Amino acid sequence: MFKAVLIEKDEAGYRAGVTELDDAALPEGDVTVRVAYSTLNYKDGLAITGKGPVVRKFPMVPGIDLAGTVEASSHPAIAVGDAVVLNGWGVGEGHWGGLAQRARLKGDWLVPLPATFTPRQAMAIGTAGYTAMLCVMALERHGVSPEQGEVLVTGANGGVGSVAVALLAKLGFTVVASTGRPQEADYLKALGAAEIIDRAQFSAPGKPLAKERWAGAVDTVGSHTLANVCASTRYRGTVAACGLAQGMDLPATVAPFILRGVTLAGVDSVMAPRAERLEAWRRLAQDLDVGKLELMAHEIGLGEVVATAAALLDGKVRGRVVVDVNR
């Protein structure tokens, strides 16, 4: 038997809570993991509250991330005792996820836990931090470098934004953090932000082109914010887009792309190829200041997940939420 958050949907409605499940209920997979830590991401919040169509079948154990130790394996490249990390692959959406004490998964979805990180630190990073690293890699791939000017991070107080600020600052970029929570300015400056600006300047409809400012940007927000960021990106700059906190729409024009040669680089972390995942985790081990993780993360137990999910969607949670599934 093991404890897990379980989402159910039936005639009685949509609900989520902690329950005890039999190991025999675990889904198919060639690797069984004893989970040490999981996380709570924006997508997990949507799944647990039912405020977004994330869950594709019921009942569902949510949790798009986990870190733990292999208990059983028939996968040729994974051995019992291996320390592993999982991010994405539709886990917590169509396959039982990491907000549980045990998980059964496809071994191809797992990557080795970098020796630099403990399982708790890996989950302080989680999909949010791994996505932030993919965004940084996208900017680099399109030639954005520190000497070219300021880089903007929107939704900077969130999980992706917090790690993006820390990574970019460590790599020598001048980082401007956009947030709707000005009271968190000291936190963002501690992560490495050089300037804090109010998200309000991006969140309303804007002009097709604005004054050029950003050499690059990491956008976690979407909608008018992404449109305005693109409109104010400098000639040949790049915007890495990975989120939709404001909305899925993109009320923009082609002007930034055809008049300034701006690149809009979409970043998907869920189905990213294994080689890219391994490189992202290698870079995180190399480029993320582990000391900053404690500034970003706070820990909760499994029983606190449902309430915290609602607070996360209400914009009341800063940084990263680490879940100790064994308390």
Give your account of this protein's structure.
By secondary structure, the protein is an alpha/beta fold. The chain has helices at residues 42-49, 119-141, 159-170, 185-191, 200-203, 223-231, 255-259, 274-287, 290-296, 305-313, and strands at residues 2-10, 13-21, 31-40, 65-73, 83-87, 102-105, 111-112, 151-153, 175-179, 195-198, 214-219, 233-241, 263-266, 297-301, 320-324. The chain folds into 2 domains: 2-113 and 292-324, Alpha-Beta Complex (Quinone Oxidoreductase, Chain A, domain 1); 127-266, 3-Layer(aba) Sandwich (Rossmann fold), CATH 3.40.50.720. It is built from 10 helices and 15 strands. The strands form 3 sheets. Strands 3, 4, 5, 6, 7, 14 and 15 form a 7-stranded mixed beta sheet that branches. It has a 6-stranded parallel beta sheet with strand order 10-9-8-11-12-13, with helices on both faces. The chain has a two-stranded antiparallel sheet with strand order 1-2. The model has no long low-confidence stretch (mean pLDDT 96).
Secondary-structure topology with pairs:
Blueprint: E1 2-10, E2 13-21, E3 31-40, H1 42-49, E4 65-73, E5 83-87, E6 102-105, E7 111-112, H2 119-141, E8 151-153, H3 159-170, E9 175-179, H4 185-191, E10 195-198, H5 200-203, E11 214-219, H6 223-231, E12 233-241, H7 255-259, E13 263-266, H8 274-287, H9 290-296, E14 297-301, H10 305-313, E15 320-324
Parallel strand pairs: 8-9, 8-11, 9-10, 11-12, 12-13, 14-15
Antiparallel strand pairs: 1-2, 3-4, 3-6, 3-15, 4-5, 5-7
Helix pairs in contact: 1-10, 2-3, 2-8
